[in-house]
Specification:
This protein has 344 residues and is of the alpha/beta class. The chain is built from twelve helices and twelve strands. It has helices at residues 19-27, 41-49, 65-73, 86-89, 108-113, 126-141, 144-152, 176-187, 217-222, 243-248, 266-274, 313-332; strands spanning 6-10, 30-34, 76-79, 95-98, 117-119, 168-172, 191-195, 210-212, 226-229, 253-257, 278-283, 303-305. The protein is globular and about 65 Å long.
Length: 344
């Protein structure tokens, strides 16, 4: 159990003070050091394509000497990003608390080599992301884009949409986000299929009608009217949705990716849209962010694109702080932490 004052570097800039953090520091031997560090979207995206390593294409934020001295004292840090060379920057680090569910932009391997426990913020934004999925899905099914355009044009033309009720949704990855999507799909009367890395085939799942193993994903997506990609980024899921997989999807089906851009071969998705094989695609993530101006994704037929903003920030920071406080208490008490990254 930790007894001396634990210095925690707050690299993620909080927008306001939180009473729960103040109470944490009163009740436990913790000192929070505010040293904001945020990398540009371009760098973070590049790291995500290279297992958290900076390829050198983008410059990292400058770190002044005062901040470096503070970081060297830190036993724990809370951050969206991990600067390069953490061995020298954080020689005493024992715990890295990420503030995002995904961690493909973090060099987890070097944290493991350093003996650092890495935890993610998995689950804190799952509800808001799943709401975004259905906001977009209903926009597609009800042809709201066309109706809005007709309003702008002052054109009174009847445009009927289609129902979510009775349709089949296939969810790739039944983690926190995938399960929240399933819960909302149940409310809409959809048939729910989902794939899991370690499924208990034959066991009932209250949120899902049928569970598939990773090796059965092709069967699942062929049965689905809507396919939602909600799995983490790893070697198994990189480029998972390519020309072959899109061809296995039902003609007129909808593809949605709210996970990571590396899951999709983007030229193949554009082709599936422009050929009208897919009815629409909902993308909140792309391989390179910000999306290059010359990307064909911008103008692909029936593309519903958003700039990685499916998270709702009205409650995100509060949820992140609540998780941090709980994990900090566990860390001080020498107990297992929540959302430990396995390093797979």
């Amino acid at each position: 159990m930790v007894t001396e004052k634990l210095k925690m570097g707050m690299l993620f800039p909080l927008r306001k003070e939180h009473e729960s953090l103040s109470k944490l520091c009163q009740d436990y031997p913790i000192e929070i050091i505010n040293t904001p560090y945020i990398e540009a979207n371009e760098l973070r995206s590049d790291r995500g394509l290279n297992s958290g390593v900076n390829s050198g294409l983008y410059a990292e934020p400058d770190i002044d000497d005062t901040t470096k001295l503070e970081w060297q004292k830190c036993v724990a840090i809370v951050s969206m990003d991990l600067p390069s060379d953490p061995r020298s920057l954080f020689p005493n680090l024992g715990w890295f608390q990420g503030v995002s569910a995904g961690y493909d932009h973090i060099d987890s391997s070097i944290l493991t080599e350093m003996g650092v426990v890495q935890t993610s913020a998995r689950g804190i934004a799952s509800a808001s992301i799943s709401e975004f999925v259905f906001a977009r899905l209903l926009q597609v099914l009800k042809d709201l884009r066309t109706i809005d355009q007709q309003q702008r044009e002052r054109s009174w033309k009847v445009k009927f949409g289609s129902e979510a009720y009775g349709k089949t949704i296939g969810i790739v990855g039944l983690g926190s986000i995938g399960r929240e999507v399933a819960t909302r799909a149940r409310a809409f009367g959809m048939t729910i299929l989902a794939s899991k890395k370690n499924p208990n085939i034959g066991c009932l799942d209250v949120d899902v009608d049928q569970i598939f193993s990773p090796g059965e994903v092709d069967t699942m997506i062929g049965m689905s009217d809507v396919v939602v990609m909600a799995a983490p980024a790893n070697n198994e899921t990189r480029d998972m949705f390519n020309r072959e997989r899109f061809s296995l999807m039902k003609p007129g089906s909808i593809f949605c990716n709210i996970a990571r851009g590396v899951h999709v071969v983007e030229d193949d998705l554009v082709e599936a849209l422009n050929s009208s094989h897919l009815r629409a695609a909902i993308l909140d993530v792309t391989r390179n962010e910000p999306l290059p101006m010359d990307s064909p994704i911008w103008s692909a037929k029936n593309m519903y694109l958003s700039p990685h903003c499916s998270v709702s920030f009205d409650s995100y920071e509060e949820n992140a702080v609540a998780l941090l406080v709980e994990n900090a208490q566990l860390f001080i008490e020498g107990k297992p932490l929540i959302n430990v990254v396995s390093g797979e």
